[in-house]
Design brief:
six-stranded antiparallel barrel, nine-stranded mixed sheet
Length: 294
């Protein structure tokens, strides 16, 4: 693996109706794997829990529920606000399979992002609201080839929300990006899993660590695996490196992509996501306004 580490820092900012409530969550699975854990026992250790503190506290404030429409109906994923420069404050990061079909050379539509979504407050947070979309971007590796190593995407949002007349970064904050780090990391990830035992109405958090690597595919490096109790609906949830409530850190370092169903069913115990290398940074840089080197 490369030894060069890359981090794009950010400055912390102050803190249409969605598709039907019955929207389905994205379920991403992959071909059988016989990879054995590299960093310990299987499944990977983790703590997964319904998040209790206020959702509007940074950096958790940047996490939201993502609604969208594909040909078979309405679906939900999770997404995170990010930016690399003050000139771009309307970008969210998620999984490629939440934006377009795997290798389908197509895009979904009707994206609608609701930070701090909370069913106990009626769904969209009444103090925050939601943002509709203006454009979306997939990697070529996902759009053309359906490679799991490239299962990440970004969406640009409208410059004003339903409640707050501002770009989403100015409303809830934005996270940085980390690439070319060593595989063996400790992460936090927050999302809206909507299949058992979760309902999709409350934010769920996971603290976890790297467990094993998959083999590389035709597009790039093998994906990471980590222990997690989150289920479909959490797709697109960002893995945060150096999580902190007090400043510094909070870099997006991978995202929830898929789990295996055979030979061992990993539902509710393991998740996988892309390893972020310089190519991932270059893709993020193209949308975020980051002016540094990847």
């Amino acid at each position: 693996l490369p030894t060069l580490k890359g981090v794009a820092d950010v400055l912390v900012q102050p803190s249409a109706t969605p598709p039907s409530v019955g929207s389905k969550s994205k379920r991403a699975t992959a071909a059988p794997s016989t990879i054995v854990p590299a960093d310990g026992s299987y499944p990977g250790p983790h703590a997964t829990y319904e998040y209790g503190p206020k959702y509007r506290t940074f950096p958790v404030s940047t996490v939201g529920k993502l609604f969208f429409t594909e040909p078979s109906g309405n679906y939900v994923c999770s997404a995170t606000v990010t930016y690399g420069d003050q000139s771009v404050k309307n970008m969210i990061w998620t999984a490629g399979h939440c934006v377009g079909a795997q290798g389908g050379s197509s895009y979904y539509t009707n994206f609608y992002f609701c930070p701090s979504y909370d069913s106990s407050q009626g769904g969209p947070n009444p103090a925050v609201g939601c943002w509709s979309w203006s454009s979306a971007q997939l990697t070529g590796g996902w759009y053309f080839n359906g490679c799991w190593s490239k299962d990440y995407a970004y969406i640009k949002l409208a410059s004003t929300g339903t409640v707050i007349n501002a770009n989403v970064v100015d409303a809830v904050g934005g996270l940085g990006f980390a690439w070319n780090y060593g595989r063996d990391q400790h992460w936090h990830h927050y999302g809206y899993p909507s299949q058992s035992p979760w309902t999709g109405g409350k934010l769920v958090g996971t603290t976890t660590e790297h467990r094993y690597d998959d083999s590389s595919d035709s597009c790039g490096a093998g994906t990471n695996a980590w222990g997690s109790g989150q289920t479909p609906g959490s797709s697109g949830s960002s893995l945060l490196l150096n999580f902190s409530y007090t400043g510094g850190g909070n870099y997006i370092n991978s995202n929830v992509s898929f789990y295996y169903t055979s030979p061992t069913n990993e539902y509710g115990v393991m998740l996988h996501g892309p390893y972020y290398d310089s190519a991932a940074c270059t893709f993020w840089k193209g949308g975020s306004g980051y002016t540094g080197s990847c």
